[in-house]
Design a protein that fits this description.
binds nicotinamide-adenine-dinucleotide; seven-stranded parallel β-sheet; binds UDP-4-deoxy-4-formamido-beta-L-arabinopyranose
Length: 340
Amino acid sequence: MALLITGGAGYIGSHTVVELLEAGQEVIVLDNLANSSRASLQRVAQITGREPQLIEGDVRDARLLDRLFAEHPVEAVVHFAGLKAVGESVRHPLDYYDNNVGGSLALCQAMARAGVRRLAFSSSATVYGAPADMPIPETCPIGIPTNPYGQSKRMVEDMLNDLVASDPRWSIALLRYFNPVGAHPSGLIGEDPDGIPNNLLPYITQVAVGRLERLAVFGDDYPTIDGTGVRDYIHVVDLARGHLAALGFLSTHPGIHAWNLGTGTGYSVLQIIEAFERASGRPVPYTIAPRRPGDVAQCWSDPAKAMRELGWRATLGLDRMMEDAWRWQSGNPAGYAEAD
Ligand code: NAD
Ligand code: WQD
């Protein structure tokens, strides 16, 4: 039996494919390479000694999905494929609903036709909106996401809840990621954003490697430890392992299950800069800039449910996140571009 990994050539997908291959699983990747390249999977093969099969195509392509399920004995799907840039989602909302909601819909329909009913979905802490109390447990009511990207994740969660209510044979995981950072310790795979990064860590690593001049810290007047925004950064390898734990649980527990995948600890932007400078030995010049619209002051998880039910918890600390992010960026200053 095999696992279908949509979006498996991307940042989180490629790290999860490594963990799955190393656990002896058969893996098929479906990716349209809209935000990734074949190079990441070639690097996965270098790490694991096994080349995952890539089917280049779109998750919204119903005929392709039917053929894929007919030709391969898929027992479960991990659905990473989608668009993830918050600012772009505000400018092009229809693209986000089309890809993220339409893609998940087409996938579930094809799974239903094929009788494959086990799914792990990449959701996000963004579905909680801006809760008043920290940490955030899964029982926190779903909030009102402040952008179409977050809204698309919320809509898919709603759709999956309705699906399980209609047919209890499904087993579905809603994996709510906090802030994934870092890279595989080999330095061979990592985050490779297109254009100027939106997220903090890739921005910092690109400043450190000389691709960008200086970091803008968005706001220093939040009610936090030092006035800058606080987030729950989680090493991408820990996050990847959370998927294996969730898939194991789903095989014996039908129904729908939400889990936070975070560490339970928040760090401020200034704490991240300091930790990165320590790990890399490079200075990160920055200036204080106005708050970024839509940002919350703080956001960190209560990860106890995943620990209790999955036996999973994050084990790699802040220093490892920074060291591994730097090993990837310093070894691949232009990301995968040189490997293409
Ligand atoms: P990514 O862009 O690196 O990976 C997504 C992959 O999906 C890419 O390889 C892209 O080419 C592919 N893809 C996009 N649209 C597709 C389509 N229609 N058909 C087939 N393939 C398609 O992003 P990532 O950071 O690895 O994120 C993976 C998932 O996790 C996404 O669903 C994202 O929304 C979610 N998520 C990410 C974060 C984060 O901060 N990185 C946080 C929470 C949730
Ligand atoms: C982290 C902190 C910024 C960039 C986003 C999405 C969320 C999820 C993860 C997918 C904040 C500050 C950032 C910079 C800065 N994605 N910052 N200068 O905003 O927590 O979450 O990515 O689901 O949905 O919203 O992550 O890395 O952008 O920001 O000061 O150049 O760094 O203000 O406090 P965020 P981030």
